[in-house]
Amino acid sequence: MIPAKADPDKQEEYLVQTLEPRLDEARAGQRAVFFVDAAHFVLAPFLGFLWSAARLFIPAPAGRQRFNVLGALNAITHELISVTNDTYITSKEVCALLQKLADLKPGIPITLFLDNARYQKCALVIETAIRLQIELCFLPPYSPNLNLIERLWRFVKKECLYSTYYPSFGPFKAAITECLEQTHSKHKPALDTLLTLRFQRFEKTQIMGV
């Protein structure tokens, strides 16, 4: 499935004119490119697959607490820089992430690819990015397939949340944190295969009535 409002032509144009040229510079060591997005992990059942010959009841976590991770994923090294909280992601957290990236002092231009969430595409964030000399490139609307970090979020859910019961928010948060901290160690081989710079393309589709 693809988002109903996605525009394949705009995505293709963006890939060719904006995304791929900067990734070429990143491969050549001339630019640091990061993909930015927030994941909101809610303490709720994440169902996987369970086959049982008899009817079986399994526990499910109670409550709706959530662990928010605003991440910036390096397109080449797959290093993850993040800001986390248990409340909400706002422009304040985005600015804090921009400052963390600026503090890396890579010695080359920094470019971020991110979606059009209101807390990211606001005056405070844009002004902060200009001050820190960070380029913000906003993806076309409804284009999660062009945001590399979306694959990382799916990996985290599969690795430590699907079909797993956490009795309280503490162990739930700790599991996510540990998984993210191991992206450069335990999970590096799997992520190097998953986080390739090949992006899914869509052709124009005709929606037929039924």
Compact overview of the structure:
GO terms for molecular function: nucleic acid binding. The protein is 36% helix and 17% strand. It has six helices and five strands, in the order H-E-E-E-H-E-H-E-H-H-H.
Give the overall shape, derived from the CA principal axes: globular
**What is the name of the CATH class?**
Alpha Beta
Query: How many domains would you count in the coordinates?
Result: 1
Q: What proportion of the residues form beta strands (DSSP E)?
A: 15-25%
The largest sheet has its strands arranged as: 3-2-1-4-5
Q: How do the helices and strands follow one another from N- to C-terminus? A: HEEEHEHEHHH
The gyration radius over C-alpha positions equals: 19 Å
The CATH superfamily title: Ribonuclease H-like superfamily/Ribonuclease H
Which blocks of ≥5 consecutive residues have pLDDT under 50? 206-210
Structural class: alpha/beta
Q: Using DSSP, what is the number of strands?
A: 5
Distance between the termini: 17 Å
Please, what is the oligomeric state? single chain
Instruction: Return the CATH topology.
Output: Nucleotidyltransferase, domain 5
Please tally the helical runs, counting DSSP H or I stretches of 4 or more residues: 6
Overall mean pLDDT: 90
Fraction of residues in helices? 25-40%
Query: What profile does the largest beta sheet have?
Result: 5 strands, mixed
CATH architecture: 2-Layer Sandwich
